[in-house]
Structures are given as C-alpha cells and as structure tokens.
Design goal:
Layout lengths: L2 H8 L7 H5 L7 E4 L2 E4 L5 H21 L4 E4 L3 E5 L6 E3 L3 E4 L9 E3 L4 E5 L5 H15 L3 E6 L4 E6 L5 E6 L3 E3 L7 E3 H4 L4
Parallel strand pairs: 4-7, 8-9
Antiparallel strand pairs: 1-2, 3-6, 4-5, 6-8, 9-10, 10-11, 12-13
Length: about 190
C-alpha cells in the first residue's frame, strides 16, 4: 500500500480529495465515498472465479447479440461525483456501460448501467448500504450484490420505484437491463 494512505490512516484522516486520489500510484486500490477512504482488500479465489464467470457470460451475450455495451472488470474507476473535496470513486467488480461516451482509458465518468459487487465480510456495510444508495442516487439502472458466504444474490432494480429481488446460488438470475439474459448460479457453483 502507498505510504501516503498509511500516513493518512495514522493521522486519523479518513477522507481524501480528488487531487490526492489522482496522485496515488496505479497499484493502490481504494474507493472513495463522499471523500471517505475505503481500502480494498485482496480478493479471494472464490471472488475472482465469480467475477470472471459472471462477466464472461454477460460479455458472450453482448457479443452474440452484437450489442453496444461494454463489460469491464475491477479494478477500474467509476467517478460518480467529482466534488474536489468529497469525491465518490468506486470500483465495482463487474460493470456494464452502454454509453461509451462515459468511458476514458482510466475510468467511467458517470453511472454505469449495471454494477455487480461480489461482497466480502469486510465490505458488507459498504456494498449493502453506502453503494446501494449512491448507485440509486447517481442513476445506475441495476445493481447486484452477490454474497458467496450466504450463497445469496440480491438484485436491485434502481430508480424512483426501487425493487429488490432475492435469489440463491440455486437459481437462474435475470439480468434486467436485457430481455433474455440469465446467469445460472447453480451452474456457476460447480466452479467454486
């Protein structure tokens, strides 16, 4: 981890400006939610398998349909609020962006259409509360929280009339931004 992040933690500083974030080396993984620092832990094997397999199915579907959306895996920044003092920059595990004008080489500037988090015990509060609220406020259309520990998938259809759909790792889960795409978690379970 970058010494500057350690120094900030030692000094009790739990926030970072946009300029401080952009000065970090590329190999330092933190997220900022309204300027608050969240250090990203190294992912587990199960986490990485789920990220790869889910993204693979979405990408294959888009390719088969000759779609315009792009699938990107973490670490890739999503700038949701560029407030200089309290920026929000997250790195969803899987994201789908259909408006390619939002994409630069370094990040997505604005809300992706679809974001997936494969949660870990240390990220539960951030994924289920902070990110959910920010994604809803900033215009993400669909958000999944995949919990390998409890083997549950929660699908949030975001907007004014937010809906929450609950699934298990025994179910086929519909990707609601598409008419006919399902991710079969029972099938994916053979890999984890």
């Amino acid at each position: 981890m970058d010494e500057r992040v350690f120094e900030m933690e030692e000094q009790g500083k739990v926030t970072m400006t946009l300029a401080e974030y952009e000065a970090l080396p590329e190999d330092v993984r933190v997220e900022l939610i309204e300027g608050e620092i969240f250090v990203m832990e190294a992912p587990t094997r199960t986490h990485q398998i789920l990220v790869f397999r889910v993204a693979q199915q979405i990408a294959e579907y888009i390719d088969k349909k000759k779609g315009d959306c792009e699938v990107i895996l973490a670490p890739f920044d999503v700038l949701l609020d560029d407030n200089a003092d309290k920026p929000t920059i997250v790195q969803p595990d899987v994201l789908v962006i259909c408006d390619k004008d939002k994409l630069t080489e370094r990040r997505c500037e604005g809300a992706p259409d679809f974001a997936i988090e494969i949660t870990s015990p240390s990220g539960i509060q951030r994924d289920y509360v902070k990110k959910l609220n920010i994604y809803n406020d900033k215009g993400v259309r669909e958000y999944w929280i995949v919990n390998p520990q409890s083997r549950v998938v929660e699908v949030y259809l975001l907007g004014d009339d937010m809906q929450v759909l609950h699934y298990t790792f025994e179910d086929k889960v519909k990707v609601n931004i598409y008419d006919d795409l399902y991710i079969d978690f029972a099938e994916l379970s053979q890999y984890i």
